[in-house]
Design brief:
The chain is mainly α. The protein has one domain. It is 70% helix and 0% strand. It is built from 13 helices and no strands. Helix 2 runs antiparallel to helix 3, helix 5 crosses helix 6 and helix 6 crosses helix 11.
Amino acid sequence: MTEAAPPVIRAADSLAHRANAIDLRRGPVSMGWFEALVLGLVQGLTEFLPISSSAHLRITAALAGWDDPGAAFTAVTQIGTELAVILYFAKKIGRILTAWWRSLYRPEWRHDPDARLGWLIIVGSLPIVVLGLLFQDEIDSAFRDLRLTATMLIVFGILLLIADRTGRQYRTLDQLTVPHGLGYGFAQAMALIPGVSRSGGTVTAGLFLGYTRSDATEYAFLLAVPAVFGSGLYKLTDIGGEHSPQWGPTILATLVAFGVGYAVIAWLMNFIKTKSYLPFVIYRIALGVLLIVLVATGVLDPDAGPAL
């Protein structure tokens, strides 16, 4: 008599089967120029706000009855928004790169705040690299389930609210340590699941660790640069493939995301100097609840678009 597989193995097999089933359902992604324009606007508007750009791309496509643009499209268009980060923080990034490079061969530079920040950005980038490679199949399939997206919107919205209300906000980036950098990094890696939000997750971690809103947000932006460029370049070869849009619409969406994203950075950095994250928390929870209702009533198929 054959011995039954352990529960953990049965669960893993079930998840893999589900991921493969979702992936097989999708087929080629069709995207026109208008869709690319709209999704580029959505990417630029939501990338830096703590509301999850990947979730909004997924939800926008589902509500409009369009194909899910896919993880590769999301990763590549985020290159546009990260170019906006580089432009906005050009002077600071230039100082960090210069000090970091000098610290490689001049020991006295290793205690420079900008050089330390450069090293800590590298440290903070490690979790998303490791987890991104380990879960790349789930990122392209099972993680894009709208029920999971709705749950993450609500859960991480509540966490952001708690962090914003209870965080002591007495630390600056000059006080950043290796353990704190890793903490930021693991929070950023959670954004591999749509609905978490790269900026929202890292800002939440920063607030819990006692950093000010402006410093937590600034480090979240800087930390995203290597991760997003790495992910975008890694996914470049998937564009035009079986489960991704063609190059033309993807390039248009990336350019639109760049322009809109730059304006959003400037607005947000001014907003958080005097305001809390409460409006974003309310929005996240409301959107998550609405998404659950739409899925539960059959208006949206959690694995595809509207159930028409």
